[in-house]
Design a protein that fits this description.
There is one protein chain. The protein has 145 residues and is of the alpha+beta class. The chain is built from two helices and eight strands; from the N terminus they run ββαβββββαβ. The protein is 12% helix and 29% strand. The protein has one domain: Beta Barrel (Cyclophilin). It is globular, with a radius of gyration of 13 Å. The model has no long low-confidence stretch (mean pLDDT 96). The chain has an eight-stranded antiparallel beta sheet with strand order 3-4-6-5-7-2-1-8.
């Protein structure tokens, strides 16, 4: 089972991936992480009690990896809850590298079955609430367990 560590100055978020529910999205995130794509990018969008969003190479929410991936919305774990990793997009099947982590369930329910959930923070969940706009993703480490 693949896992990740999203390392920031505020702490490390350890993530379980939902490979069964979103295999292509997980593969894309793993590939980008292993290539160093996310290293040094910022959390460019932070909305308290909603989400922290990162993965834009331009730092403004407009950039991506140069390609798009299809949404995967039919899996069992397509519910946005605190700590959930989900793909950001500007319309169905337009995601690429930008992802967000949810602050809670109350304000993110409308995202269910609209954005691909591909993992969840299982350790370091407190880091989510400490991230501020402009904080950097130092590195994302992928490992198997």
């Amino acid at each position: 089972m693949k896992k990740a560590e999203i390392i920031t100055k505020k702490g490390t978020m350890k993530v379980n991936f939902f490979e069964k529910d979103a295999p292509n999205t997980v593969d894309n995130f793993v590939k980008l992480s292993e290539s160093g794509f996310y290293d040094g990018l910022t959390f460019h969008r932070v909305i308290p009690q909603f989400v922290i969003q990162g993965g834009c190479p331009d730092g403004n929410g407009m950039g991506g990896p140069g390609y798009s991936i299809k949404c995967e919305l039919d899996g069992d774990n397509q519910y946005h809850d605190k700590g959930v990793l989900s793909m950001a997009h500007s319309g169905r099947d337009t995601g690429g590298s930008q992802f967000f982590v949810c602050h809670n369930r109350e304000n993110t329910q409308h995202l269910d079955k609209n954005h691909t959930v591909f993992g969840k923070v299982y350790e370091g969940i407190d880091v989510i609430d400490q991230i501020q706009e402009g904080d950097k993703i130092e590195k994302i480490i992928i490992f198997e367990e």
